Amino acid sequence: MTDAFKTRRFDTRAVRVGHRRTPEGEQSEPIFPTSSYVFESAAQAAARFAGDEPGNIYSRFTNPTVRVFQERLAALEGGESCVATASGMSAILSTCLGLLQQGDALVSAKAVFGSTIMLFDNYLAKFGVAVHYVDSPDPEAWAQTIDRVRPKLVFLETPSNPLTQVYDIEAVAGICRQAGALLAVDNCFCTPALQRPLELGADIVIHSATKYIDGQGRCVGGAVVGDAERVGKDVFGVLRTAGPSMSPFNAWVFAKGLETLSLRMHAHCRNAGQIAQWLEDHPQVARVHYPGLASHPQHALAARQQEGFGGIVAFELKGGQAAAWQLIDAVRIFSITANLGDAKSTITHPATTTHGRLSPEQRAQAGIGDGLVRIAVGLEDPLDLIEDLEQALARI
Ligand SMILES: *Cc1c(COP(=O)(O)O)cnc(C)c1O
Known about the structure:
By secondary structure, this protein is an alpha/beta fold. It is 41% helix and 14% strand. The chain has helices at residues 10-16, 42-50, 64-77, 88-99, 114-124, 139-149, 169-179, 191-194, 230-242, 248-259, 261-280, 299-305, 320-330, 360-366, 382-394, and strands at residues 81-85, 105-109, 130-134, 153-157, 182-186, 204-208, 222-226, 285-289, 312-317, 335-336, 346-348, 372-376. Strand 5, helix 8 and strand 6 form a beta-alpha-beta unit. The model has no long low-confidence stretch (mean pLDDT 96).
């Protein structure tokens, strides 16, 4: 099952990998809404179930449309195997179920997606996996914790949400390799169009396809990418048995999303960069967090590690929570929602939404101030977005 497009350049792989044209001669990838598949004989059924013959069995774990998405994303991240899942969270859960067991330790960045922390603290801990957090992008802090707790798995997300802290994937991967730990990177914010963690030494890449891979806010889905052993066997085994599967329709939306991914990501970066610059000069703004700004503490690392600085910008208003809420209520283009990765720009107040369940002390420790606003810059004209922010700031 060789796919000649896999050796082509990134944008060609994004458009072409995975589709095996059927005898109907279709140009666009077909959707296969079927739960099971028909075998030619009892012997063929037995061979498929035994794994002696490749091919479709049942759509919980084999579906041609899902396969197109998996092969395409694997080809973009540079991984041998990809397992598509029902959501980003089930991608993280499947990875943990496939790779960890009772008594293992997991080390994670503290600044990861809120539900990821809840999954680790409320559920993994319940089954005897000890979770330890690192609250700094400094590789020295990672080395200390990893040496101390000897984890099986290490997990991080870069740039972080909402403060866009950048973690050095290559440095942490080196520390993990020495300690015999696997490194998993949630690559949701950058996507392979901007950052390829496997090339930097990570073992596993995790996606919420819900965000930029879809790109238009339609479907929930996720994926795990890595080698044939850990992902193709261990994580796939969880999917096959436990069934957090992606639907063929969602896989089709995501596969088509990959075709325009790099175009969209570079446009998100351009628009976000322009808005971040403008915000930095605004008298009501105390501070802007965006890796593309020279003022960002890890600007040089981001420039080295990423091919663009992403679409997420966070900024602190001098007027605190009252000003943040007034701004959010006064914008006319941005949608008030915590989702991101959409063509439509979104705006949210982390302290009272995504980070609202933390105590005030925990929020302060995480650097989430009451005046902090996060925008996920979409694909509207950036001048219209700047005008929108300008009129909204004038009304505070
Ligand atoms: C949204 C998100 C997730 C969870 O993905 P779902 O598809 O919502 O389950 C995980 N990680 C990051 C960074 C996210 O933004």
